[in-house]
Automatic annotation (TrEMBL):
Record's protein name: DNA replication protein DnaC
Keyword Nucleus annotated: no
Keyword RNA-binding annotated: no
Residue ranges constituting the AAA+ ATPase domain according to the UniProt record: 95-227
GO molecular function terms attached to this record: ATP binding
Source species: Desulfosporosinus hippei DSM 8344
Length: 243
């Protein structure tokens, strides 16, 4: 049952921009005044942390949640769970190292990059996820559209940027130049996770210029952990049918 005290406290919490709490669940037994304050403030910290996570996830553009626990390391044996867990301390982000997942479609590149992205978000890092074609569009329109300028501004503030599907579609020489400018700006400042279905020898084919390709790869792999993933595509192996 609500009391005048609860109503008064909630009014003050609103004025102080504090998160709402369930007082009956938070204080199930008898507590001293100091214990009650400690419990209340601890709950506020937890709730604000959850809210900050939600905001970071929304801004990041992350796709559907993926986890390392949900990845079938038995099926994809060219990479191990231990390798991924060693990356979960995220010291590599602090040192602006990059990660590249290379391999054919459906071997788990996007799953692993997304799982690392969500883990980084929950650690408090600013993360951004986008496909290469989306990044190119932002770079091409940043001078003429406010939405692209906002997205680019967020990218420059991010601590980890995941660029998915590099190599799936060809880009023009102008677009390759824009991509080089962006990669150069991120170099040794922001960590990148790149997923690509192309080996390095094929990059000049979709980027359309060997000089630009060399310059981009030079910056990407200078401080980088590279995972070459092989095997049959997971979705093809476990495809679902209607009948």
């Amino acid at each position: 049952m609500r009391t005048k005290s609860v109503d008064s406290i909630e009014t003050m919490m609103t004025k102080l921009h504090l998160e709402k709490v369930d007082f009956h669940s938070l204080f199930p037994g008898e507590h001293s005044p100091l214990e009650s304050i400690d419990l209340f403030l601890s709950e506020q910290i937890r709730l604000k942390g959850n809210k900050a996570d939600e905001i970071r996830i929304k801004r990041s553009g992350m796709p559907q949640l993926k986890t390392l626990e949900g990845f079938d390391f038995g099926f994809q044996q060219s990479i191990t769970k231990e390798q991924m867990l060693r990356l979960s301390d995220f010291t590599w982000i602090e040192q602006a190292y990059n990660i590249m997942f290379l391999g054919p479609p459906s071997v788990g590149k996007t799953h692993l990059s997304t799982a690392l992205g969500y883990m980084a978000l929950h650690k408090g890092y600013a993360v951004s996820f986008l496909c290469l074609d989306e990044l190119i569009k932002i770079l091409k329109t940043a001078e003429i559209t406010a939405s692209s300028r906002r997205k680019l501004k967020y990218l420059y503030k991010a601590e980890l940027i995941i660029i998915d599907e590099v190599g799936f579609l060809p880009v023009s020489k102008t677009e390759s130049n824009l991509l080089f400018t962006f990669i150069a700006a991120m170099h040794e400042k922001t960590s990148l996770i790149i997923t690509s279905n192309k080996g390095f020898s094929e990059w000049s084919g979709f980027l359309g210029d060997e000089v630009i390709t060399t310059a981009i790869l030079d910056r990407l792999i200078y401080k980088c952990e590279i995972f070459n993933m092989t095997g049959e595509g997971y979705r093809l192996k476990y495809r679902k049918t209607i009948l």
